[in-house]
Amino acid sequence: MRARLVVFPVKGRNWCFSRSIDPSLEEAASSLTPSTLKHLWKKISSSSNSSAKNVELVMDFASNKMNKAWMGLEKAPEGTIKNKLHGLGLKLLSRVKPSEIFLKSISKEVSSVEITYPSSLNARLVRRRLRHIAMRGAAIHKKYFYGSVMLLPLSSALAVLPLPNIPFFWFLFRSYSNWRALQGSEKLLQLVSDCSYAENPAAPKGSEPESEESKHKFHSSQDSLWVLQPSKDLQELLDKHAEGNGLNDTAISDICKTFSLNATDVSKFRHSM
């Protein structure tokens, strides 16, 4: 499956990295996730999956349950305890960095990426920035994952209190989120580190080194793991709303509508470090 990644500057040296939303793919992925414990056990016991695959099934099952519980809190009447818990959850979620959300979107099913970026940017710089966010994410989220897992037993002790064990569910969510971001980091690094164009068999021996443009043309084949796609439309939207303080809400909204991005996630990149 090929994923479309959109990369562009949002404010100063802050760049946005986001994946285009495809509702049909999200529905297909959710349909493969076990919905009940019986279904989960049947998949684990009857299949010849590896232990890593079974762990992934359990993690996806737990995530699906947490998402359903979250939707229940969202629909709770105003002023109720569930409604207040939802408000607290929103405050906690606002602290999640946008780079983590982006890395989590690079699922195991992604086999190649099409990287859309403003036509004025250097293609080599765009790829370098993607490799940097993948390498940094792999190091950071591995550390955070182990830290969150270590805090789970301590927070589970709070279950004796007659209140919802918010710390336990928060660290459970953080464990899952960091694990998914770690997997996405490693997958993205694998994809954008492919250098098959360096072995271009069509290039005659002793010829001049390939220009960046010729490398781009060769690497845009169907067999490539990554394709750099400069976009004049994206460049025009950036030029139209160019300001000294970065992109405004109108610019982000227009870009998100054109390239099917999540406006809330894109806006966070303006203030990320």
From TrEMBL:
UniProt xrefs under InterPro entries: Mit_KHE1
Family annotation (Pfam families): Mit_KHE1
GO biological process, one term: proton transmembrane transport
Biological source species: Salix udensis
Membrane-crossing segments per the record: 144-173
Protein origin, superkingdom: Eukaryota
Start and end residues of each stretch annotated as Disordered: 200-222
Protein name stated in the entry: K+-H+ exchange-like protein
UniProtKB keywords: Membrane, Transmembrane, Transmembrane helix
Any one GO cellular component localisation term in the record: mitochondrial inner membrane
